[in-house]
Structure formats: C-alpha cells, structure tokens
Write a structure and sequence with these properties.
Elements: E1 6-7, H1 17-24, H2 33-50, E2 56-59, H3 63-74, E3 80-85, H4 88-99, E4 103-108, H5 117-123, E5 130-134, E6 136-137, E7 142-143, H6 146-155, E8 161-165, H7 177-180, E9 184-188, E10 200-204, H8 206-214, H9 224-231, H10 242-257, H11 263-288, E11 291-292, E12 302-306, H12 314-324, E13 326-327, E14 329-330, E15 340-343, H13 350-367, H14 377-389, H15 392-403
Parallel strand pairs: 1-13, 3-4, 3-5, 5-8, 8-9
Antiparallel strand pairs: 2-10, 6-7, 9-10, 11-12, 12-15, 14-15
Helix pairs in contact: 1-10, 2-10, 3-4, 10-11, 11-13, 11-14, 12-13, 13-14
Bound molecules: pyridoxal-5'-phosphate.
Amino acid sequence: MIRKTRLFTPGPTPLLPAAQFAMAAADIHHRTPEFRALYERVLGQLKTFVGTKNDVLLMASSGTGAMEAAVSNLTSPGDRVLVLSAGKFGERWEALAKAFGCQVDLVKAENGFTFSLDEVKNALKPETKAVFLQATESSTAVRHDVAGIAALLKSAGSDALLIVDAITGLGTTKLDVDGWGVDAIVGGSQKAVMIPPGLAYISLSDRAWKAAETSKNPRYYFDLRKERKNALKGESSYTPSVALIAALGASLDFIAAQGGGDLATVRDLLVENAETCAAMTRAAVQALGLKLFGPGPYAAAATAILPPEGVDSGVFVKELKSRFAAIVTNGQGEMKGQIFRIAHIGMFDYMDTIGIIAALEQVAAAKLNLPGFAYGKAVAAAQQVYAERTGLVKAAREAEAVHA
Ligand SMILES: *Cc1c(COP(=O)(O)O)cnc(C)c1O
C-alpha cells in the first residue's frame, strides 16, 4: 500500500502547513516596522501560550540554548543548586550547571521513575540557590510533580529559584506558571507549537530577573537582560530567525482558532488533547499485551513502551517505519533497545492515534507471538478511552436514563 510519512516523535513534531506557508512568505528585514509588528504580536501570543504575565523571550537556538541561558543568567559559579534528574534531559541540567561552575546536589530517579517529594525535601539546603527539573522527561515519558515541588519550596521557606524545562511539558501538561511560582520556564519550537527546530523561548519571574542582574557569569549571545531590553522595543539583539518567528505566529493563530480564537482556552484544550491521545495509547498497548515503561506518573507528551521479553525495541521502530512510514523513537542512551516512544505533542488527533495503534497491531501480528493476540483488541481499548474521555459514553448513558 501507499505509505505517507508521519512523525510520532517527541520533537520534532509534525509541521503545521499554515506555519510552513508563513515561513516561505517571510522575506522581511528584521529592522523594519513590519518585523517589529510581527515580533511584538508573537511575543504577546507566547505569553498567553505559556500562561504567564511575565515577558517571554525568544532565542535563535534549539531548546538547549534556552536551558543554557537559564543556567548562565540565574546562577553564579560556586552556587549550590539542586538538580532533579530522571533521564537524559535531567542529565542535561546537571551537565549545564556543572559547566557553569555550580556545586550540584543531585536527586536522581531511575529511568522510568520520578522522585518523591520527601527526597527533594531532604536534598534541599538552606543555601540552595536554584532547583532544576523537567516538567516531563521526554526520554522516559515520565511526568514530574512541578506543582508539588513548587509548594514544597514555599512551605520549606526556600529562596531557591524553580527552573523548569517544559520543552515537552508546554502544550501537554497543566502548568500554572505564575500561580505555582515557577521562576523560569523553557520551551522549544519543534515541540507543541509544531514548527521546525531552531527557536527556544524562556520566561523569568521578577525574582529570577533579580538573579539575572547579580549573576557573575559572563554572558553575551544569551544575555537575557539585553534581550529583554530589545524585546520591549519589538527588536531582537541580533538577527532573529525571521522565518521561524513568522511560522510561530501562524502556529499560535492556528492553535487559538481551535478554541474560537482564545489562546488561553486552547491551552487547556491542547493539554486535554494530549492527555486523551496518551490515555488511548496506554490502554491500547496494554490491551495488546505490552507493558508501559515504569510505574508512572505518565506524561501526556509521549508514551514509552517496553517490547516483549527478548525483543529489541528497535524492531518496533524499524517495522513501523518500513511498513507504514510511521516514525517512532527508540530509547535514548542506555535505554536504546529497551523501550520505544510514541509522542502526543502538537497536532496529533484521534485519527493519528487510532492509526498508530492499528499499525502497532499489524506489527505485533507480523513480528511478535503475543499470547491471546487478536486484531482489534488494542483499537477497541483506545476507542473505549476516547468515548469515555470525550463524553460520548456518558452522553449515551444519560440519554438512555432519560428514555428508561
Ligand atoms: C527536546 C527537548 C529538549 C531540547 O532539546 P534540543 O535538541 O536542544 O531542542 C530539552 N528538554 C526536553 C525535555 C526535550 O524534550
């Protein structure tokens, strides 16, 4: 049969056609009123998308650039910081903090697990200047309790800044940035906003801006103080990624239109959408006889799945690609061969989710000897979840009750 390539990867995510058109049309110079109007509009939309009253800044880098900016602007060499690490992206915070001379305390959860609030509490010191974590650890598809950790910092009377990599958390996970007291939040373009890689964004609280003023780290390209000063005038410090910014504007317009034009409403819709795709996928793989990686809490950004005993997870990656041109990801680093991941970030909908689940059934039928396998079991489990979550089942029951 014909195969259409489809990405099911936790970054890059499938590109939004409207954003691709906007990119192609974006031959404007960046020191012009046209660009300033675009930039101001997109920065304003991003604030709503992130859900903060604070300024959001854009930088021309992949997400890691904004993670580095968080470390270089908000810490000083010798600062004691706490990194909560549960996978490859947690390790990135650790490496970045060390690269900038921080003394790193580490709470490390095994791959597939999150840390307990008690562990965090015990590792927190009066001199801890910052706490770093992911909202969702994309390498293991685990969700961390950002709200719980924010509340813990408050109840412990800690002055530590709470710095969150929400690169796959934004658009998939409920995050009350200002309400919880998140001091820095980082996002990336190739995730929920459905545009190519190359843009990162970051927002800082008032407390974080104070730290940025007193940090002793040298900064140049990623100097957030300078970037904010320019952003307030509708300018970027250096040549911005004009095409990607135009794409981002088109994407945020598209996202807003999904909820009648109100970006704030759609933020919740997007989260709900990812949660439903993830719940459908989890139910399906279990109905197929496969196991999820770790005990949860599971992220809605992606689902990490264990292959049957003795099977390399690469079989799923390879078979889904060669049979259906569906691109899923293997485990990263030491998890390679151990798990495969299906993402739910960005523009995945019911059709995509049912499609990848049905494709998984075909791979299972062709390649695995799963006890009790029958076509349709995984799809049926996903259908049930979809109906429950979107209210179809509830509505039918209510209608029945009325007729009875
Ligand atoms: C994708 C991702 C990043 C950023 O990676 P880049 O390759 O630098 O864009 C960081 N953290 C998480 C959790 C991610 O999923």
